[in-house]
Amino acid sequence: MARVVLIIAALFAVLFVLLLASPPAVRRHMETRYGVGAEATESGQTRLIGLAANGQFVRLGTDLGDRTPGLTRMPMQAARAPESEQLYLDDFDGRVVIVEGRDSGGWIYSAQVVVVFGPFASMLIRHAYGG
């Protein structure tokens, strides 16, 4: 019983420390660890961080007036509408995700979800990005 109480206390201590982490430190960690916010790589891939909400990708760290791109699995060269292979995030609703793909205006082509954060990490990241 004492062991369970100790484990629960340790978890609360970790959560408390995480909640006190400064937003700039969290953002720096996301940029260095996950490549979020960096320019496109040599292969043209870009990583964006956002919230999965009602199956859609809502970009974090931007003003409300900034665009939130659609996500599509199809490559840029395909001669079809990007909506035909739209990537929905229903399975991740309420969680912060990192998506990777080729940014082209209003769509991220060849999009794939590369990281899905758990509820506690999502709460911390949303706080850091003002989301």
Can you describe what's shown?
- This protein has 131 residues and is α+β, with helices and mostly antiparallel strands.
- It has one domain (2-129).
- Helices cover 32% and strands 25% of the residues.
- It has three helices and five strands.
- The protein has helices at residues 2-20, 23-34, 119-129, and strands at 46-53, 56-59, 70-71, 96-104, 107-116.
- A five-stranded mixed beta sheet has the order 2-1-4-5-3.
- A hairpin with a 2-residue loop joins strand 1 (46-53) and strand 2.
- Helix 2 (23-34) crosses helix 3 (119-129).
- The longest helix has 19 residues, at 2-20.
- It is elongated.
- The chain starts with a helix and ends with a helix.
Quick rundown:
The longest helix is centred in the N-terminal third of the chain and has 19 residues, at 2-20. The protein has helices at 2-20, 23-34, 119-129; strands spanning 46-53, 56-59, 70-71, 96-104, 107-116.
- Tell me the quaternary state: single chain
Order of helices and strands: HHEEEEEH
- Main beta sheet: strand number and arrangement? 5 strands, mixed
Poorly predicted segments: none
